[in-house]
Specification:
four-stranded antiparallel β-sheet, 14 strands, eight-stranded parallel β-sheet, 31% helix, TIM Barrel, 340 residues, single chain, binds flavin mononucleotide, alpha/beta, 2 domains
């Protein structure tokens, strides 16, 4: 099969491969930049780059233009975007979940810092298309329902990501990618990108045959040299078996896919952990009823305290058997296709 061309608004990567955003601080600048340098599209994650000090003065300037609604600048987000920019001339976007309390601040900060596109899911923002329109930053919406995908297209989405249940992190559906993808492909005329459970060139071909214009992969990129997450997090991927990858209940009110460990067993067993919630970081978090803090659990995991945290992973994590370079992943995926 010849590798199809992906075009998202004015963005045309050499290959139709997007590295999915991974929070907290798993897909940081070196990984996103390496994917962009290999000819794909890299994605940072905005999770935990929000403003803890919500009392700072707001600004109403974005790329030297004054906008109607002031926002709180998120300096760490801007810095991460600049770091990625310094490592690549390729395409780098940011995943900003609608569920993040400081969604608007992170969107405007990212636009100001010169991001190439924004991808958003975990809830549906009707406003984001209007927020960024004058800056011509394409918005990619993550949705698995044809009706919602149509609305996103009408409001101005440049592409849709359809993420099936095989994915890592918080999940929006219990249906496999190959089931939800064709329905969304039929509903819209913008590019549709398949995500969830894609590991090989063969898997990619299967998605292209179902109408996908591109693929988004995340789990496959965790065990790479360029992924900055703690080596203990990567080791959890290398050590796990298929039976260790489970769906857990997250305090944000959505299921999530993670590698089972002692922390998961404790919190799934109902143990209540002491935690403070100084700033509600997710709009949907039921912090008062929650038996643990998801942000803290994800921060612990990326820092390497994996037995005190949650290691999010897609269904395929057990297939990671060594640490490779991003270029090696690309070489293996592309070997399946006729190029040109
Ligand atoms: C460790 C990890 C963290 C993730 N974090 C996020 C996130 O913060 N926001 C989001 O929208 N998707 C997140 N995802 C989903 C990915 O962006 C991607 O769409 C999905 O995992 C693709 O499936 P795959 O992992 O089977 O390739 C995460 C996935 C993983 C594996």
């Amino acid at each position: 099969m010849r590798l199809p061309k992906l075009r998202v608004a004015r963005l045309e990567p050499r290959y139709p491969i997007i590295q999915g955003g991974m929070g907290v601080r798993i897909s940081t600048a070196p990984l996103a930049a390496a994917v962009a340098n290999a000819g794909g599209i890299g994605t940072l994650s905005a999770a935990e780059y929000h403003n803890k000090d919500r009392k700072s003065p707001k600004t109403d300037v974005v790329r030297d233009r004054t906008i109607g609604r002031p926002y709180l600048y998120a300096p760490q987000m801007a810095e991460e975007i600049r770091r990625a920019r310094s490592m690549t001339d390729g395409i780098v976007g940011v995943n900003i979940m609608y569920a993040i309390t400081d969604f608007y601040d992170l969107v405007m900060t990212s636009v100001d810092a010169g991001i190439d596109f924004i991808v958003t899911g975990a809830g549906f923002s009707r406003d984001i298309y209007g927020m960024v329109r004058e800056f011509e930053v394409p918005v990619i919406s993550i949705c698995d329902q044809p009706g919602l995908a149509k609305i996103a297209e009408r409001l101005g989405a440049a592409a849709i990501v359809v993420e099936g249940k095989e994915a890592g992190g918080h999940l929006g559906t219990d249906k496999p990618t190959r089931e939800v993808l064709p329905r969304v492909v039929d509903a819209v005329s913008i590019p549709v990108i398949a995500a969830g459970g894609i590991w090989s060139g063969e898997d990619m071909e299967g998605m292209f045959r179902l109408g996908a214009s591109g693929v988004q992969m995340a789990t496959r990129f965790v065990c790479t040299h360029e992924c900055e997450v703690s080596s203990k997090f990567k080791q959890a991927y290398l050590d796990c078996g298929q039976e260790d990858i489970a769906i857990i209940k997250s305090p944000v009110g959505m299921p999530g896919r993670a590698i089972r460990n002692s922390f998961v067993d404790r919190v799934e067993g109902g143990e209540r952990l002491k935690f403070k919630c100084p700033f509600l970081c997710l709009k949907t978090c039921r912090a008062k009823e929650a038996n643990y803090c998801i942000a803290e659990a994800l921060i612990n995991a990326y820092q390497g305290k994996v037995e005190e945290g949650i290691v999010f992973a897609g269904e395929n994590a057990y297939r990671c058997d060594r640490i490779v370079s991003v270029q090696e992943v690309f070489d293996e995926l592309l070997a399946h296709f006729e190029l040109g």
